[in-house]
Amino acid sequence: MKTKRTLDIIVAGEVNPxxxxxxxxxxxxxxxxxxxxxxxxxxGSSSITVFNLARMGARAGFVGVVGDDFFGRFCAERLxxxxxxxxxxxxTKTVRTGLTVWMTRGDRRAGVTYAGTLAMLRAADVPSxxxxxxxxxxxxxxxxxxxxxxGAPALFRRARSLGLTTSLDCNYDPTEKxxxxxxxxxxxxxxxxxxxxEAQRLTGQRNAHAAAEELRKLARIVVVKRGAKGALxxxxxxxxxxxxxxxxxxxxxxxxxxxxxxxxxxxxRGASLDECAEAGVESGARxxxxxxxxxxxx
Length: 298
Ligand SMILES: Nc1ncnc2c1ncn2[C@@H]1O[C@H](COP(=O)(O)OP(=O)(O)OP(=O)(O)O)[C@@H](O)[C@H]1O
Ligand SMILES: [Mg+2]
Prior knowledge:
Elements: E1 9-12, E2 16-22, E3 37-43, H1 45-55, E4 60-63, E5 65-67, H2 70-82, E6 90-92, E7 99-105, E8 108-114, H3 128-131, E9 136-139, H4 152-161, E10 165-168, H5 182-186, E11 191-192, H6 196-203, H7 208-215, E12 221-225, E13 231-234, E14 239-242, H8 255-267, H9 273-287
Parallel strand pairs: 1-4, 1-9, 2-7, 5-6, 9-10, 10-11, 11-12
Antiparallel strand pairs: 2-3, 7-8, 12-13, 13-14
Helix pairs in contact: 1-8, 6-7, 8-9
The structure holds adenosine-5'-triphosphate and magnesium ion (MG).
The site of adenosine-5'-triphosphate has 22 residues, from helix 8 and helix 9.
């Protein structure tokens, strides 16, 4: 029996809230200070991507792990509000939901993360029956997802064998080894979305073009995100640059995750690479016009 593809895309990865305390004076131990303003926002690269995908009209599901606590319920509520399918969100009673606390002053910020459930996603959390219902699998923040590293190549192979296309974002590698088995996953990846710095660190190349060409030997399509310079797309046929959309940037959290969402919303509909890349830079630019990764998509 053939399963109906009722989802366009499944995003698997991390989800956590960002607690932002604004305009904090320099910290001093044994002193209590006041912040001028506060926000509790949906953070997490993978969760920002899936939230924005759903808001752009894609039928999207999210697989990740949260604690059975206030912050877990907060994340689930935000994703549900956006229209994300949470049938396979895993709730755990033994670990608390991860959290990042940001403190800002002017345009600078410092953050502290409690990892909690952040890196707990395993390949086994993504059932084949669920994959069969979708057309595409995206994994965000690969380097954070330490429990996924071992099973990731087989997960991507499994997705492909079930007829899905695959994509991967790596984000910065906190171990700075730039390995964690990512090359084996890239061989099973249709679209890879590093930013320029990550692409160069992964390859040891000194510019985005050379890095993209090298990564293209592994993944089918490589999209290097270059902030206000736009993006570079490299496929078997050609390599081309897409300029950024000019906007007044307010705050850049989630620009890359939103780029992925814009690109993938088109990609899952079979659009050309030019259209996907245009949608990516539009979506990235939209994200930087508001504070937080999802505000511009609400
Ligand atoms: N200042 C900006 N003006 C216009 N567009 C921008 C700006 N910054 C980012 N973008 C758009 O967003 C895309 C992704 O941003 P960036 O290259 O910073 O990704 P990233 O480093 O992966 O971001 P993230 O911090 O979310 O992981 C860029 O390719 C660009 O299209
Ligand atoms: Mg990024």
